[in-house]
Specification:
By secondary structure, the chain is mainly alpha-helical. It has helices at about 5-25, 30-35, 35-65, 70-80, 85-105, 110-120, 125-135. Helix 3 (about 35-65) crosses helix 5 (about 85-105) and helix 5 (about 85-105) packs across helix 7 (about 125-135).
């Protein structure tokens, strides 16, 4: 059985980070890249949102599929087996999981332009949350 309180807590973590990411996405490239605080906070928000999505994915694959993913990206692939998620959303979330890994393990080496570009993809978090709402209601 899905722990709805747990899923709701993960969704809340994603939403808080997503709100911050949206604010940074409104900045033009030069303003963003000239602000170390914006860059650092954006990286942190990607890490928090990504980790919450990953933790939720692991919970859902365990409860809905009785399976354990081989890695973070594979978790979102497995979630596709439920038939309850859009494949493009899951593909984007798998890419976000990989980006989170890059930030965590090579934080200093990640190109700031790439971080700014990734802000154009944050809508997949919103799509993922929206698709989750139907599962949480079941």
């Amino acid at each position: 059985m899905i722990d709805r309180d747990r899923v709701t807590a993960y969704i809340s973590e994603i939403k808080v980070s997503l709100d911050n990411l949206k604010n940074y996405a409104r900045l033009d490239r030069q303003s963003f890249l000239s602000s170390p605080v914006s860059i650092r906070d954006t990286k942190y928000c990607f890490i928090i949102a990504g980790q919450a999505a990953i933790d939720m994915c692991y919970h859902l694959t365990a409860k809905l599929l009785k399976k354990a993913p081989s890695d973070y990206g594979n978790c979102f692939e497995l979630l596709g087996e439920t038939g309850k998620f859009n494949k493009e959303t899951l593909k984007c979330m798998a890419n976000m999981a990989k980006f989170r890994n890059l930030l965590v393990h090579h934080y200093i080496k990640v190109d700031d332009d790439r971080v700014y570009d990734k802000l154009n993809e944050i809508d997949c978090f919103e799509r993922f949350i929206q698709e989750l709402k139907d599962i949480v209601k079941e």
